Amino acid sequence: MINAIVLINTERDKVNLVGEKLASIEGVSEVYSVSGRFDLVAILRLAENEDLSDLITDKMTKIDGITKTESMIAFKTLSKYDLERMFGIGE
Amino acid sequence: MINAIVLINTERDKVNLVGEKLASIEGVSEVYSVSGRFDLVAILRLAENEDLSDLITDKMTKIDGITKTESMIAFKTLSKYDLERMFGIGE
Amino acid sequence: MINAIVLINTERDKVNLVGEKLASIEGVSEVYSVSGRFDLVAILRLAENEDLSDLITDKMTKIDGITKTESMIAFKTLSKYDLERMFGIGE
Amino acid sequence: MINAIVLINTERDKVNLVGEKLASIEGVSEVYSVSGRFDLVAILRLAENEDLSDLITDKMTKIDGITKTESMIAFKTLSKYDLERMFGIGE
Amino acid sequence: MINAIVLINTERDKVNLVGEKLASIEGVSEVYSVSGRFDLVAILRLAENEDLSDLITDKMTKIDGITKTESMIAFKTLSKYDLERMFGIGE
Amino acid sequence: MINAIVLINTERDKVNLVGEKLASIEGVSEVYSVSGRFDLVAILRLAENEDLSDLITDKMTKIDGITKTESMIAFKTLSKYDLERMFGIGE
Amino acid sequence: MINAIVLINTERDKVNLVGEKLASIEGVSEVYSVSGRFDLVAILRLAENEDLSDLITDKMTKIDGITKTESMIAFKTLSKYDLERMFGIGE
Amino acid sequence: MINAIVLINTERDKVNLVGEKLASIEGVSEVYSVSGRFDLVAILRLAENEDLSDLITDKMTKIDGITKTESMIAFKTLSKYDLERMFGIGE
Amino acid sequence: MINAIVLINTERDKVNLVGEKLASIEGVSEVYSVSGRFDLVAILRLAENEDLSDLITDKMTKIDGITKTESMIAFKTLSKYDLERMFGIGE
Amino acid sequence: MINAIVLINTERDKVNLVGEKLASIEGVSEVYSVSGRFDLVAILRLAENEDLSDLITDKMTKIDGITKTESMIAFKTLSKYDLERMFGIGE
Question: Which domains does chain F have, with CATH numbers?
Fold first, then answer.
């Protein structure tokens, strides 16, 4: 399983709308509206590298109202939980 | 369940060590070492507001090697998964 | 009682108007027009986490003239005053 | 009554200690440990301009563990509450 | 006498025009067009706190062509000159 | 008369000391301790370009406790006051 | 052979289109769509300094959808590979 | 001779045009299109302070396509060359 | 083949030394010392995701003299060259 | 002739010393101590690309007291003067 975290800024009155659209995309596991400098944080969980490219450079760019994104690809995942089994992705 | 995302920078040679220490703390659900401007991203999942305060302003400040943190508290969580049940936290 | 501080920038000629609209919203305890890099600082005082989400991601986004906000959620409050009693919020 | 808001960063393991010291200073009405880029937010409420100068450029600079501060002086205060009476300052 | 310094950016072709308008406002003692990151620096000298609020959040916001301002309120003034007498303001 | 404005940051516990040392230097007309991101603002008023170079790149660099400076040279000065006569510099 | 690396930001929905246009220009050896703060990274490999000037200040500025670029010219190249031979450029 | 260096950003497709216009202005000695965060660097060499003010706050602001400038005035010039004689400016 | 670009800052007198050490690591295809805000740019070309994690969070953190890194993972690679064959990696 | 402009910050009390050392290096045509965010600006004029690499990544890194540099390589030079002849470099 490949994990990525995306920090997102939206037009002021579209935070909730963008959040809902993001959450409905396959591969987007969770979307949080958050306090601080960013509006939304999306957690992507995917089986393959290729899906990630498709998700970030194609599907996410088509959502209206996003003004800026900064994506971070997880090198390593440390967790007390068996995330792959829980989210049913990967191995 | 209260969720928080913490962006973390560490001393260069302590990324993995800090990551392991963070992951062992109760309430820290996942720790990712990531590409980009930050070194680690931690996802906190807790039952109560009070635990969050204790985790961020007390327990996390005692880990040696962290140079900067920026925490974001989730207002709303959108997910196709039943995260509360999966992580067994809060109702 | 949950406290949050929001740093706000507005369109140049709408500082006072935005300030007045913010101050009239329930849960917004005080609004200060301030010197420095920001135009307004709002202090939110609420009984419940849910109200905060509603206030920041919904009600505040509908005020015209705000260009940027950065919200900070209080983990802990230290005061010589009994703020909960004074503001009549929370336990 | 003159109000000022101060954004504060501290050495990582001194957030709580600095917060307590700040809260004990006369004229510091509230201190919040907060999520985000800053560690603490202090609200100062004073009767006179001179006290503010004394507080920010003298008393606060003597607290050990503060690494950066950014103060904002309130030009105008909008509130549903009678803050001067509640905090017993001014008038 | 209360002193404030305001760092100002303007639309590129309005530096001189904005400077002249600012200089004509009562309470604005001097306006400098300057080298560096900012276009203008205004020095405000006033008798009362209230005038400052009025000047910065009302009169200055009505000047067309200003894109950004950052105001700094003087806590203390050190000078070999008797500024209050020279500018005929305050005591 | 040549005017320059210098934005100054100091070590936290040396704001007042640095301010006093600066104010005693010939050519430094006024020093303000200020709210916001900077600690001090110095106004330099000199008869000659050469004095300015000497003041900024030599005399001011010898004051202990200054951590950062950003100087701005005035191209033009707009004022209701006859600053040259008042400060007895230039013409 | 002269190498240059260009960090590129594009309008959100034009990442792939801009990438393809860049990749088709002579002298642009590789274009990567990337995670993080930038959208694309282009590697330029050219025989002559003059071509680089032409590429960056002329050809690349004509591609629609680029919002910001930051170019870095390589002083020295260290590689286990014989890049000049592999890319058929220079000596 | 007074020297100033100006860092300039332009609209993407006007780098060369703005550069040519700048180079034709009296007092602008050299204009370089450059790698990195800025688009152009202009070197101004003038006999008098007044010309500099006129050049930067008037003539340069009338060139279409400039989006940002940051000017730096030289306090001192160190060179193995006799720049004043070479450029035929000043004493 | 997985590609990553790493922007690197080093201690001032260790640019060349760090560059040579980086270039000798397996998986580091090219290292460029560059003009601008960064000191070095490293291009990583690897067969597997796991190697990338090992390279960035372990091997590269052990090189003395690096002060900051910002890594970017390539989602997609566009090139007129058959990079995989040329560098003998992947497929 | 290849031109490069280098923006330089130094330790506060070493501006003049660093400036003099830089000016004595072959290939460094002019060094200016300047107003604003930077301390020094160096203009490099060289016959060959290789000399530039040697100057920036080797000779300049050996000068004590420099804290940060940002170099910009000139793609194109526009000037009313015949710089190559004047500085006796190139052609």
Answer: 2-76 (3.30.70.920)
